[in-house]
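Chapter review. Work through the record for Histidine biosynthesis bifunctional protein HisIE before attempting the end-of-chapter questions.
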Amino acid sequence: MLKPDFSKGENGLLPAIIQDDNTGKVLMLGYMNEEALAKTQSSGKVTFFSRSKQRLWTKGESSENYLNLVEISLDCDQDTFLIKAIPDGPTCHTGADTCWDEKNEGFGFLNKLEQVIEGRKNGDNEKSYVKSLFDKGINKVAQKVGEEAVEVVIEAKDNNEELFLNESADLLFHYLILLQAKGYKLKDVIKILEGRHR
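Structure tokens for Histidine biosynthesis bifunctional protein HisIE:
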């Protein structure tokens, strides 16, 4: 049960940090009073008290880029909210993903790996394994994914965890290459899974 101490905030307003539940990216900072908190909890759409409009304001009420509530927690002093949400689109009124003009991509190392793959794909290093796969075409890339998938299945039936995990890493790596060969990124697949989960 949340027990925020609204008396600590100026005019009964407490800061609310909004974080994307899927990516972990901080999207924005807003302020909530008791009424905004209650509306957020009842509607499932993150609602603030707008200091400039002097009224309740549901994020997305005009843009339809709602913040869909996942969970609310309080800090140790009971005066700051951490709200995990799933955004329907860009969070910032400028059209940026976040109010700090950051991309809302949060697959950590996998994002970096995708960038490396893209760099090698478009590079001119003839010794690059990744480039050689792209140069051989989609059939070769797809074949490698199939081969790695079979190796994962084989290792799954044995009890060598190290081999199983290494083959799993090979499969994921080649799958990322296949996605790029088809013009997609991991986020495109994640989006479909998120849709199914809802």
